Amino acid sequence: MPLLQTRIASVVIGLAVLAVGGAIYANHRYAQLDIRHRAEVLTGGNPERGRMLFVAKGCGGCHTIDGVRQATGLVGPPLTGIAERAIIAGKLANNPANLETWISTPQSVVPGNAMPDLPMTTAEVRDIAAFLYTQT
Fold this sequence. Notes:
This protein is mainly alpha-helical and 136 residues long. The protein is 55% helix and 3% strand. It has a two-stranded antiparallel ribbon with strand order 1-2.
């Protein structure tokens, strides 16, 4: 193959790789936006504020979440993938109302468990729930 045809073929292949890579990236970003939007609609909370509250309230001292540097605890279960679980706290259907109850008053659900009742506003609980529902 002449040198010019080889260079043209290389450019075409390079552009195709860039196009496919760009499409994959765009699809991933869309999926992330979709997950965040779904979490907001389900809970009425804000996942970004929920992430900050998760860290500020010290939840990462007991729980691990991939991608959250401050969440490396081994006392409670890892929370990566919690949005896809059918059951939370070993006994509740995984839905927003139950997750919010578990976050706000875990001792009322399973008395004597290691998770403390923490003083939080309803908005804070919803924000943390929204953040957790982004964890797939």
